Every structure is written in C-alpha cells, then in structure tokens.
Amino acid sequence: MGLMNALSRRFWYQHTRGRGHYRLRQAACRIADGRCNRKGEGAATASDQLIDYIEDFARKTLDT
Q1: Which domain holds residue 33?
Q2: How many CA within 13 A on the CB side of residue 42?
Q3: pLDDT tens, position by position, for the chain (64 residues)?
Q4: Cβ–Cβ contacts within 10 Å for residue 51, how many?
C-alpha cells in the first residue's frame, strides 16, 4: 500500500498543478457537513460522487 500511496500522490501532484479542482474541495465539504450533521446518506452520496470524479479524472488524464 505504501508504494501505491506514493505513486498516487505523484500522479495527483503532476496532473493537478495549476488546476483549480473545486470539485474536490466541494466534495470534501459535503462529506464533512454530512458527517458533522449526522446526515449519513448525504455524506455517503458525496463520497460516491468524489470517487466517481477521481476515477473519471484519472482515466481521462491517462487516455490523453
């Protein structure tokens, strides 16, 4: 897992520099809000959307 973590960090650092990834921040805020306000379903939905966004971003980046 340590190796995958390091490779993942390198990927994100290399491919997100200079880009405003507001969707990442928005998703993190929605997850935190859901957790703080005991809205588990909202937090789970936001988490699923975040994972979908990360996967879509990575696939589009690697396909180019």
Answers
A1: 21-64
A2: 13
A3: 888 888 888 888 888 776 667 777 888 888 999 888 888 888 899 899 888 988 888 898 888 6
A4: 11
